[in-house]
Amino acid sequence: MQTQPPNFKVAATLLAPFAIVLALASTLCGEQQVRLRSGFVMRGSVLEIASINQNPFAGTAGSEVQVLPIWLIDDGLRRCYVHKLGMIAEVTPIEGVRNRIEFWQPVAPGNRTIAGIGPLLAVSPFNSYGQRIVEVRQTDAARISIIQGITEINARYAKVEGLKSTPSYAWDMRVATDSIDSEQLRQVFRQRIDQSNYDRRLEIVRFYIEAELFGEARDEVERLMKDFPDEASLTAQLQSLVQRQWTQLFDEAKLRRDAGQYELAKSVLQNFPVNEVAGATRLEVQDTIDSIDAKIAEGRRLIEQLTAQLETLGDGDRKQTLLTLVEEISAGLSLDTLARLSDYGRLGGVENVPVDNRISLAIGGWLLGSGSGLQNIAIATSLVEVRKLVAKYLASSDADERKAILAELRKLEGADPNFVSKMLPLLPPPLALPEEAKHESIAGMYLIDEKVRGVLGGDYILQLPPEYNPLRSYPCVVALHPVGGSAEAQLDYWSGPPATDGQSRLGQGARHGFVVIAPRWTRTGQSGYESTAREHAEVLTAVRDAMRRVSIDSDRVFLAGLGNGGSAAWDIAVSHPDIWAGMICVSGEANQYLRHYNRNAKSIPMYLVFGEIAGDKAPLLRNGDVLDDYMAPGFDAIVVMYRGRGPEPFYEEIHNLFDWMQLATHRRRDPPQRIEASSMRHGDQFFWWLEMTKIMDNIAIDPLLWDQTPHPRAAEVVASIGEGNVVRVTQGPADQFILYFSPEMGLKMDQPIIIRYRSRRIDFQFDGSLDTMLEDARTRGDRKHPYWGSLIVP
After folding, report:
1. Cα dist from 692 to 313, 532, 739, 745, 763, whole Å
2. What counts of helices (H) and strands (E) characterise the chain?
3. Residue-wise pLDDT tens digits, 469-508
4. Is the pTM of the predicted complex or chain greater than 0.85?
């Protein structure tokens, strides 16, 4: 056996000073609560540095005033990097972790320190002494085992160090406390802490409380009460823990309610042990139940009132059409759709408002959304037929049928783009989720492949959240598996593995009400991410198909990936920045194109997670140049380095990832008034409202030929919208462009739009047709932000 496995790297002299500086900073600085401009909150000791590329202090020597624009926030488990001026909103001193429990272990000497490591092949559970074995593979295919032991644990992390063996490796690894199995942890405490020592036993209780493990703390207090019956203070402590435990459960019920899981939330609340909690909590629980019930009861009352008003219309086609719609409203009524009837709720019972107007308010609200203010019953009736034809168009794969539908729409009074643009987001998804695609046992899981879609490519697996309602708009994670991994495993990661009943998932995606899409983006025999247009197309095709089958909020679609999938997510997000609300890369690598697509990355919030000793060279050595570019004004980027960790999936980060995605600031941005992007690959040619029909061959670089390109350079894409309804195409690596127009761009669609391209002027007059709008919504799947018109230039 080699004394230094190829998968390992003895600590480099380049990294050693950096580690010493960080260790000193963590020891000497108090903790801060850092709130970012996005609203995301981080905690830890703060250190200002100049760069995260290789040596963080490179380039500052000899300067009279060092510019230290980056904040490193070290919480002991992770080191997080953000740009100071561009991202920091507020800093508050806080008390750090208070309760630390130390264990003696035979720690390995520091003469052979691990500073680079490959993937872990196996990790055993911790035994009752807080020790385990991790295995990695050498390049000669032999396994090497390292014994580790917990030397310190607190509410945030456990310090796990390499122990003496043959050979011995010094290794300071940190793992999140909540990632350690609670039963394993309980066994360690009972083995390593004197159970007859009351004060030491109280340390365990304080540890559990600070970690917000109130159930474990309660169990420990109950054991203490049996072992030390004369300690009267334990009774009050137990009561406090019971209150905090049930408050935690109440918070979970509210989270489920906000995620659209109303039945589950009500079930939790109705079975809440109100007799064990304080009076204020009892009242809040009952108020929450009453609020849900009262809203539904009000909706039913409005339906009854509307039905009675329709009976006054007399017999006729209009009455029957509207009664049929009211049946649909009644069937679809929920806390998610009740807001559509808000106008009718205010005015539906006002006698001095004509009954036709009141009926129109209800119909208009259901079809167009709250605030439509529609009071013309003829138009309201027409909109019912318009909606039927629009839904039929979106579902059609027959070009002739779609052409005939457009001809019918032109005859209808309600077929106005202003109405249809409001109608589109409220429609149920135009395509069904076929029964044959449904998983045989797991609820809400579907396999969408070529048999279902009828075309090759774009296969994906889908997981719906509990109590999925097609009339509610859901956030979404598009999860890319590592090469050699499975799409199914991504559902386990993001939505949680199947529960013991085998039919449901209880993970974070399920809790927070996220749809998870896992595209099958790799090809047979693939060894890594290849940066090809084929891979991009597999992902984008899957997303567009899913958006036609599932009610997905197009402003809250996050692209994420693990390992090679993280590399793919990073590249695809930055190459197509107009699609995503944010990008999450876990243990990915920057490819060649990312080093040239810096300006594209400004449009996307990014969360990048690495192990600080992953690979033969550390991630900040391999990817530091790209990551350093993101530490600048205009970027919303967080770089997270787990201490002493290699290339892992870092499931410990899952709570932070969902907190980050749930931020109100992390929504897809509106179409910009000015596009500034970069492109150098076929397929990277659509940026918001500007599409290039083909990238020039002398600009586009095939990823397979990248190494044969002597001086690769990205071409700039520049276009803008100015005063006077003027759209300028200034620059772009194409001979022909397609421009798309909508009022969301700040354009006045009822006035001529002037396009200036080079020395040419082209005038475009929107004719009010629905042709572009419906085809755009059908092909892109984005019914929330359809473009109204388009023009090929020149």
Report:
1. 54, 18, 9, 19, 19
2. 24, 30
3. 999 999 999 999 999 999 999 999 999 999 988 889 999 9
4. yes
